[in-house]
Amino acid sequence: MLFFHASWCPKCRALDEDINANDIPAGMTIFKVDFDTATDLKQKYGVTLQTTIVYVDDDGDVLTKGVLYNDTTLRALIAAAP
Question: Is the pLDDT of residue 3 over 90?
Fold first, then answer.
């Protein structure tokens, strides 16, 4: 999955801290993408807000996406996965 993160965003920092403090399930990979500089990826996946998570398959095709603004936990990230 792609986690569109901005260093200035408190919600992004909270989610990042929770991800780092817990065990990521086997088979799940989280790539942190810089929201401010990854213009090409934001356009490709239609991302307009930081804390957006884009779940992709091995070919980079979108499975689903969502914004984890209200619940910035690894638990919520896992629950939203397809």
Answer: yes
| Exposed e or buried b per residue across 48-71, where buried means at least 16 C-beta atoms within 10 angstroms of its C-beta | eebbbbbbbeeeeeeeebeebeee
Tokens at residue 48, please? 């307009």
**Which runs of E-coded beta strand occur in the chain?**
2-5, 31-34, 52-56, 62-67
Domain boundaries, the chain: 2-79
The CA distance from 76 to 74, in Å, is: 5
So what CATH class is 2-79?
alpha beta
Residues 6+ apart with CB under 8 A from 73: 15, 18
The per-residue pLDDT for range 56-71, each reduced to its tens digit, is 998 999 999 999 888 9
Q: What's the pLDDT tens digit per position in 23-51?
A: 999 989 999 999 999 999 999 999 999 99
